[in-house]
Amino acid sequence: MKKQLPVRPNLEQLKKQAKAYLAEVKVGAADAINRLLEHHPQGQGFAKTPTPYQFTLADAQLVVACEYGFASWPKLRAHVLQPESGASVQAAAEIREAAGQGDLPRLETLLQAHPELINEVGGSGVRTALHQAVFGNKPEAVELLLNHGANPNIRCEGDNAYPLHFAVEKNHFPIVKLLIEHGADPIGEGDYHELGVIGWATAWDYLDSDKETVDYLLAHGAQHNIFSAVATGATEAIQRIVSLFPEQLERRMNGTKMRRFPLHLAVIKKQSSSLQALLDLGANLESLDEAGFTPLDQAAFSGEIGVAQTLLNHGAKVRLPAAIALNRTQDIQRLLMRDPDTLKPNGRWATLIVRAAESANGSVIEQLIRYGADVNVSDNPTTSIDSTWGYTPLHAAAFRGNMSAVETLIQHGADVQRRETKWHGTPAGWANYAGHTAVRDRILLEPVSIIDAIEYSLLLRMESISQEDPEAINRHFEKYSLFPLYAEGWFTPLAFAIALNKLEAVRWLMEHGADASLRSREGKSLSDIAKSKNLSAIVELLENKPAGNAKQFSI
User: 339-444: what fold?
Assistant: First the structure.
């Protein structure tokens, strides 16, 4: 049964509820398990074990959110943090949307009407309009917002990060300059990931550092930390930092998912000079990241054979991940004799295939499958991106743009429709988010759902889906176990196509029997929704449709 939020809900109290609930699940409390079964998409899987050790705080937050009638924790959090007035909520959302789209005339009009909402947070990640303009790579919108008084040093809630953190991460150099020129803090310590601005510019394992951005930051007050120094091959900075603070040699990247050490980072960033500097300073060869990888394991899985040999020459031990990636048959056989089921579901290395999908080639994936690895295994939330459940090897390969792994995983039956539980993204969605369009398009050649077909304008695929499953055209999204966070449970494919401004998909759906008389929970017609988004072509399509009996969706 849906619980009611207090009239004035408090986010901190909701966080405490989630933490308390997590503790109850960990000890196997009966009521907690019942809540898990009722509200978590993977409740059955968690509840099978006496104490679901893989259940994380993110999962507990999801259960709490669902109990209050929200599809996710970010949606509950955004609701709690919104301004009280419904009109203000809508106006603030429109300001963020206009900023993200770079719609300058609309943004100017909204700011003139609601100047007090310029720094309001909300939406996915609980960000401001300035954050959204950065995400959309809209320098003109960034400049307009700054000229209207937007605070360049306001933090979003999710990452506790400034707009500048995201600008450097995404290599939007013109925006970086604009922000710095308007007073953005070039250091930016205190973000959730403990990297500072220069760390965001350099230390993410999926990011190729932009020298122009790094040089600009250093020239305007930023200073290297151990991770940015390692990531950019700044050996003098490495030596200086370790001489002043020896503990930095073995400092974990605690605010990142894999909690790696500097030596791991040198391997990932292919910085041989950083690697040698760290080895000369005595870095630990056997340090383990959150996935249980040593630097040698990481080098082997990344295909860095020369780096792997350097580590072996310095005395690194060969463990199963490195043995498989380096195809050391005798070592593989020796290690598997000790635990033949280690790569199978629930084995010690069951999620090794996820790590392989991130950076190894298809031949490594083939070997893992041969020894029992499951292509649809869910990564442990402690190592999956954003602590999500249901993150599979195909999600990992898609996010990293690893086409070789994608091809091999699909060949062996990887589920292209699987959605993870935090952002509700499919593998194609993760590839799209990361900018790997070729990988996204390869995945979309497979039998995707009508939701993905609409999102990526695959009209021919919509045709084949409707032939195989005629009810899909008018199926409410609440009938799916998971659907995109930017959709609502009352949505049908037609409502979704309208929300995404997919004119041709709207036209096709209406021509094939989509119900245009659907209404939202608040009683708004699809035409009303299209008008609110200024989608005149879609409004015309909808209003020329012969009227039927309006059907307001209810649960």
Answer: 1.25.40
